[in-house]
Design a protein that fits this description.
Layout lengths: L4 H13 L5 H18 L3 H6 L6 H8 L1 H31 L2 H20 L1 H30 L3 H25 L13 H30 L5
Helix pairs in contact: 1-2, 5-8, 5-9, 6-7, 6-9, 7-8, 7-9, 8-9
Length: 224
């Protein structure tokens, strides 16, 4: 027997009230809780329809609060590592493609050209491109979050993107802080750090776009 949609929603609503924010992780938990109820409860309609504080469903869920919290936190940690490894593996595959080599070669030639013109212009130009790319990626992640609600996998992509962008922008500033003449002493490798961040942000975004089809297939029922 499969639980009715209204009963599935009651389980999910209860988890939402417990501040379990990630819809994809709640989806896994709801499936597990529903299976337990199907196996252990004889009269499922009666189990869900009794009202009041002592309703069977509410009493059952209250008895599981601590277990559910531990399970949710464990799943969040597990998914964080799983998503990170998935992103890194997928980025590695994209990195080995010919189009990536062409992108990197074009970027290096552009940086070398700008450096010959002016080192500071080269660094700031590439930093602007990095910020624009990060902002666009963040906007797309925001749009998808509006569609599905909070998904752990989308947050993982956004966190990795943020981390790469942060390194690309702030590593040069960290080194600059140790130099006496500030921007007058911009080191030649700074534009290449920003370029590396651009390449990796682009690859992360490509991986996300490739993953969108699977995302829509798996979580289409969560679209708001």
């Amino acid at each position: 027997m499969e639980l009715a949609k209204e009963y599935i929603k009651r389980i999910d609503d209860y988890l939402i009230r417990m501040s379990f924010e990630y819809a994809d992780i709640r989806y896994e938990m709801v499936d597990h809780i529903a299976s337990e109820i199907e196996e252990n409860i004889t009269d499922i309609d009666d189990f869900f329809t009794k009202k009041g504080f002592r309703g069977e469903f509410l009493m059952y869920m209250l008895s599981q609060d601590e277990k559910l919290t531990e399970s949710y936190e464990k799943l969040v940690r597990k998914r964080s590592w799983y998503d990170l490894l998935f992103i890194l593996k997928a980025v590695s595959k994209e990195f080995l493609k010919i189009k990536t080599f062409i992108l990197i070669l074009f970027g290096i030639l552009s940086v070398l050209y700008l450096i010959q013109y002016n080192l500071k212009v080269a660094y700031f130009s590439i930093s602007v491109v990095l910020i624009i790319l990060f902002s666009y990626s963040a906007y797309i992640y925001y749009i998808e979050t509006k569609k599905f609600g909070k998904l752990k996998v989308i947050h993982s992509f956004s966190y990795v993107t943020l981390f790469v962008g942060y390194l690309g922008i702030y590593i040069p500033f960290i080194t600059l802080s140790f130099l006496t003449n500030g921007l007058e002493k911009i080191i030649i490798y700074h534009p290449f750090i920003a370029l590396a961040a651009i390449v990796f942000q682009t690859l992360i975004f490509i991986v996300f776009l490739n993953y969108k089809a699977a995302l829509y297939t798996k979580y289409k029922h969560l679209i708001l």
